[in-house]
Design goal:
The chain is about 45% helix and about 20% strand. It is of the alpha+beta class.
């Protein structure tokens, strides 16, 4: 009996893996499975590389998911390490870098926000996201932007630390608006001395490090002293600080007795969908919670999912001193050692069964189950809407992938195209793409030719590099175009020339751009509206608006770069070096334009005559 195409591919994959096994050692390390397009399929770690990789040659014992992975394997790569802990850390780092589709992935593993108190003679208090490369002390993470912004605003009101950048701070000659609205003490103009400012910095540190009750007692004592000395204005200042501290404590729900920084992590599941809920507690304060829905968890145990989550998640977020888990880990000591190396201090993982820690864990588990229920409900609603979309637009099947396109330009300048992607799980932001319209090319569209721009975007999407990798950029089941009949015909012409049959719908704004009165165009059909299908109409409006937002954002970025580049480059005597010096000193072209002649002269390399020339250019 002849083997099926899948069986043949599986046998070939097993043979390739077996060939690699012969040359492997028994040392710890990391292995990568790669397909014929040089795309990384899977990254794994092993205590014994030879033994672990050999297990893939017994494919009949493995789940269907892994059999498919083996059938796609074209080659393998290996990295040996000294210890299994090193292998675990390297595995997490490579998964974050390559995002293999057979590994557990945290699609929303974004950088959380922190508060940063910079290392400076006059420290700055600011919000920070991303790699912690700036010198200073970091406090967090905060689970939501709202939480960190609210805390930051309150702290400016209480401690009045500066919020401006170093270049702006160094160039100030008089206080800015923050001083006048009583949210800064104007250290830039030395309206406060270093000793008093240092005291405010220490107060802010005390609060952020959880010593808020001690701080309140100190402020209360000073308020009483100032009141007794009849310095009522200072006493009122301390009173306001105490009130603001009380308010922020209530918002952060300081009601735990946790002595160390702690993350509380619980996992819930239903079918193949998994939710991981994490609560952040820092210095006894609740810094919020976040829900994760990791992908590619099919055929994996909760223990395996949790282990992968911990090592991947804490690549971007500093591990706390203690982590409370709802389920055990298969390799708890190994994960603890890996996280301790990342944190550069001991990290403890525990599964409390009673006491306050157990109550916090139960609370996290309840939140995980609630978030999972909401997620499943939203997905079901999404599937219902997508089925309605298929019915209305007469599609053969429910669209798993919808691509939405929009162009943006101003009289043909800085022309760009934007593509967003949506499907059963909502917006797929990792698949969004930007297109810079090449107006200086021989075959480029005429400036202002919106149809020509749309044609170029379609050619580059369906005949360019994006079309070469169908595993990462599969063709959609529906194209939604922001435009009218002209845009529809332009897209249809390109697809016809490429012999592609993809359903196209153009959505044109209603009279006077009235939302809800949109007209839809589809090949072979008369123009129609969806006023009777409110749910689908609202969904399509969301898609159109998201594409428009994405396009406008990209267009503004390009326009800002063009404006910033030309404004300084047009000044005779300003070369690349002086331009860089000016931007470093003032922070932006806008600040250079606002600067006075004396401010400009204070910049190294800017003479009096050149300062006058720059000032005259902008004024």
């Amino acid at each position: 009996m002849a083997l099926s195409l899948f069986d043949t591919s599986l046998e070939r994959g097993i043979s390739i893996i077996a060939t690699h096994v012969k040359s492997l050692t028994s040392s710890p390390g990391v292995y990568r499975m790669i397909n014929h397009q040089e795309e990384v399929l899977y990254i794994g770690k092993a205590k014994n590389l030879k033994k672990r990789v050999h297990s893939y040659t017994h494919a009949h014992r493995l789940p269907n998911r892994l059999q498919r992975m083996i059938s796609e394997t074209h080659t393998m790569e290996f990295i040996t390490t000294h210890t299994e802990v090193e292998a675990l850390l390297l595995e997490a780092n490579l998964i974050k870098r390559f995002k293999p589709r057979y590994n557990i992935l945290l699609k929303d593993n974004k950088f959380f926000s922190y508060l940063l108190l910079t290392k400076h003679e006059w420290p700055r208090l600011m919000k920070h996201r991303g790699a912690k490369t700036l010198p200073g002390t970091y406090y967090g993470p905060f689970a939501s932007t709202y939480a960190v912004n609210n805390t930051l605003t309150t702290m400016y009101r209480i401690f009045k630390l500066r919020s401006c950048g170093d270049s702006f701070f160094a160039s100030r000659k008089r206080p800015c608006l923050q001083y006048h609205i009583k949210r800064c003490t104007a250290p830039c103009t030395r309206y406060i001395n270093t000793s008093d400012y240092g005291e405010l910095v220490n107060q802010a540190k005390s609060f952020l490090e959880g010593r808020s009750h001690e701080l309140q007692q100190q402020l209360s004592q000073r308020m009483q002293e100032e009141s007794e000395n009849q310095n009522y204005e200072k006493a009122a200042h301390y009173r306001d600080q105490i009130r603001a501290l009380t308010q922020i404590q209530v918002q952060q729900n300081i009601n735990t007795t946790l002595k160390s920084d702690t993350d509380v992590i619980a996992i819930a599941y239903h079918g193949e969908t998994v939710c991981i809920q994490i609560f952040f507690f820092r210095h006894g304060s609740n810094f919020g919670s976040h829900s994760f829905f990791p992908e590619h968890t099919k055929d994996l145990s909760l223990e395996e999912i949790l282990s992968s989550f911990l090592t991947i998640f804490y690549q971007d977020t500093l591990p706390p001193q203690e982590i409370l888990l709802s389920h055990p880990l298969n390799e708890q000591s190994l994960v603890e050692d890996a996280l301790s190396i990342t944190a550069q201090r001991k990290v403890n993982i525990s599964l409390p069964k009673r006491g306050q820690k157990a109550k916090l864990l139960n609370q996290a588990l309840e939140n995980a189950e609630d978030a999972l229920a909401r997620h499943l409900s939203a997905n079901q609603s999404q599937l219902t809407i997508l089925n309605e979309v298929a019915d209305i637009f007469e599609l053969p099947n429910m669209p798993q992938r919808i691509e939405v396109y929009d162009n943006s330009h101003i009289q043909g300048t800085n022309a760009i195209g934007a593509m967003i992607v949506a499907g059963a799980k909502g917006f797929d932001k990792a698949s969004y793409r930007k297109f810079t319209i090449k107006m200086d090319d021989q075959n480029a569209p005429v400036p202002g030719d919106d149809y020509g721009m749309m044609k170029e975007v379609m050619r580059r999407r369906f005949a360019g590099s994006l079309s070469q990798n169908q595993s990462r950029n599969p063709f959609p089941q529906l194209l939604l175009i922001d435009g009218g009949i002209g845009h529809l015909n332009a897209v249809y012409e390109v697809l016809e020339n490429l012999n592609l049959s993809i359903p196209i719908v153009a959505i044109a704004k209603g009279p006077e751009r009235n939302a809800g009165k949109e007209t839809f165009y589809q090949p072979g059909r008369a123009p129609f509206s969806l006023e009777k299908h409110k749910t689908v109409l609202f969904y399509l409006q969301q898609l159109r608006d998201e594409a428009h937002r994405f396009a406008i954002t990209f267009h503004r970025q390009k326009r800002a770069k063009t404006i910033e580049r030309s404004m300084l480059d047009d000044i005779v005597g300003i070369g690349a070096h002086r331009k860089k010096t000016l931007l470093r000193h003032f922070g932006s072209t806008k600040e250079v334009a606002r600067a006075g002649i004396e401010d400009l002269q204070s910049v190294k390399g800017i003479s009096a005559s050149l300062a006058q020339k720059i000032y005259d250019y902008f004024h």
